[in-house]
Amino acid sequence: MWGFYFDELMHSLPFFLKGVWMTVAVSGLSLIAGTIVGFICGILRAGRNKILRAVIGAWVDVIRGTPFLVQVFIIFFILPSAGIELEAFPAAVIALSNLTASFICEIVAGGILAVPKGQREAATASGLSQYQQLRFIVLPQAMRTIMPPLVGQYVLLIKDSSVVSAIGVVDITRVGWLTVQRIPEGLMVFGLVGILYFAICYPLINLSAYMERRMTVVSTRL
């Protein structure tokens, strides 16, 4: 029986590969959008404007303090009642981008605030503008703190993308649920699902570990 199920699963492999492509597409677009928004919000969150810091802080707390599945449902099911109708794919990208941006915002803000104040004071004394301080002094030093957890967040993003299957996005998880209805051997089917997610995440896991070692060596030399 297991041999029959395995053969059936292998025949479904092209369907799983389409799910891999959908997972990569949703995660890739969300990664780009979330990184851009997260960096901008992180810089503002570490800035001097108290109002902006409070508003961004409230947004981060709400997003990080509520289940991601609820956020996906609000965007896909609730927004249409306000006249904003989205297909499953863009709704998934928006929800995942928003979640990713909130976490990256905190990572970036923490990295910037970790830069010693003396560096900014020296830059101010040298006549550099705030933009020049940020570009040439603060961010280059903050990136040593930001990069390892940032890459780790990308791994979490890919794993969190499995939630969007709940609104009909045919990613790896959705393919797994559809396949297990035809091949009632859940361990085999979702074992393959886990392997595919691991294959996507493993390069990023290695990159994160490498960057942690790299940044540790750089910090030691400094």
User: Could you tell me the number of beta strands?
Assistant: 0
Radius of gyration: 21 Å
CATH architecture: Orthogonal Bundle
Distance separating the two termini: 61 Å
Q: How many helices?
A: 9
Taken in chain order, the helices and strands follow as HHHHHHHHH
Structural class: mainly alpha
- Percentage of residues in helical conformation: over 70%
- And the CATH topology? MetI-like fold
Low-confidence stretches: none
Oligomer: single chain
Number of structural units classed as domains? 1
Q: Your description of this structure?
A:
The longest helix is centred in the C-terminal third of the chain and has 36 residues, at about 185-220. The chain has a single domain, classed as MetI-like (MetI-like fold). It has 9 helices and no strands. The chain has about 220 residues and is mainly α. It is elongated.
